[in-house]
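Researcher: I need the complex structure. Ligand is 2-acetamido-2-deoxy-beta-D-glucopyranose. Inputs:
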Amino acid sequence: MGIWRGSLPLLLLAAAAAAEPASTLEGPSWPVTVPLREDRGHAVDLPDTDPRVQRRVTGWAPEQIAVALSAAPTSAWVSWITGDFQMGGAVKPLDPGTVGSVVRYGLAADSLVREATGDALVYSQLYPFEGLQNYTSGIIHHVRLQGLEPGTKYYYQCGDPAIPGATSAVHAFRTMPAVGPRSYPGRIAVVGDLGLTYNTTSTVEHMASNQPDLVLLLGDVSYANLYLTNGTGTDCYSCSFAKSTPIHETYQPRWDYWGRYMESVTSTTPMMVVEGNHEIEQQIGNKTFAAYSARFAFPSKESDSFSPFYYSFDAGGIHFIMLAAYAAYSKSGEQYRWLEKDLAKVDRSVTPWLVAGWHAPWYSTYKAHYREAECMRVAMEELLYSYGLDIVFTGHVCNVTPSDLQYL
Ligand SMILES: *[C@@H]1O[C@H](CO)[C@@H](O)[C@H](O)[C@H]1NC(C)=O
Ligand SMILES: *[C@@H]1O[C@H](CO)[C@@H](O)[C@H](O)[C@H]1NC(C)=O
Ligand SMILES: *[C@@H]1O[C@H](CO)[C@@H](O)[C@H](O)[C@H]1NC(C)=O
Ligand SMILES: *[C@@H]1O[C@H](CO)[C@@H](O)[C@H](O)[C@H]1NC(C)=O
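Model: Output:
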């Protein structure tokens, strides 16, 4: 199905605890199936005292700035957070209306002549149990820029120009190449299971030094659910806490730490996220995925999925489909019906490449997650296969298993 135009895209398969194949800086190299690592290693989290995770702004100044793509290269999302989170007992959610959501942008740093406004929200993570602490977020802003030129560098400043000190520095990102069979992003970084460990920092530094045009993050983002609400963490939650706690706790400030650490990448390179099991984060009233759904912008409405869990977008000659391994995927469900419609709309003469990503792999020999996603595979594989899906990227298994053609 066609060839990548221009330079070969550089696909970085990286997981926090895995590293074996030749450096992608030396690549591209021929794909090989490498043996599973027996030793998963021991990843150590960045502590809250690390300057890279601390709040570096004051007042209502934006932080955790991030760019995401919309369904087409003529549009993009800019997201950020103002105000600090609260952690403790009687947390009082901030009023999202306190700070405006404005992005000023243009083709030069000194010419931010266009303006877009968007929405703001806060989310809380509440535990109605004795001894557990609650969390409520800073104000999370999402603004969609429209009418952009594809393949073009845009400079932007986000915040609320009406409040002194409440706008960001000028950042810049590049839109995806125009949709069509002859233009492609040069480099796409694909990561999963990132976390916020010292291994994350080496993975992210490596990724950044490759200067990707786009980052796909295939779920398992901050691993805030490896912590108790009192901020005590462990690398094996179920081993340490399962019996002593009424609910699987999380320590939501880890999400803010993650957003701060990632800002140098996310403010300049569009990143598309899809949920993993670590994003479930159950809380009061069986509510799940609150942090994931609130913190990231997704082209859900633009790709007609109306769900943060699955969506699609075009970048040059590639149609990307991000699927939910942790939302209903049965043939009678909404995700499946959306996928049918989305696939039917793809014109392979316009986007010759059809690429999908989700969290849990359908094919893996790794013992720890063996056949976990089998039901999803049974429901969706036939449909994806019938449309000639070219590439699947997944995460979940913190090991390296590039695989050959698998569908039987
Ligand atoms: C956290 O919020 C829940 C729900 O409002 C409440 O029941 C619980 O008491 C709160 N926790 C503390 C420590 O105040
Ligand atoms: C992860 O980081 C630790 C240091 O914290 C290092 O010793 C280890 O080799 C790293 N593991 C991998 C797989 O890179
Ligand atoms: C948090 O709670 C756990 C379990 O009750 C306890 O072992 C740990 O010492 C606590 N940590 C802090 C910082 O209070
Ligand atoms: C939460 O889920 C449990 C088990 O699935 C169920 O028994 C309970 O009724 C649910 N609670 C609410 C408030 O929905």
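Model: Summary of the prediction. The domain at 11-31+47-393 is CATH 3.60.21.10 (Purple Acid Phosphatase; chain A, domain 2).
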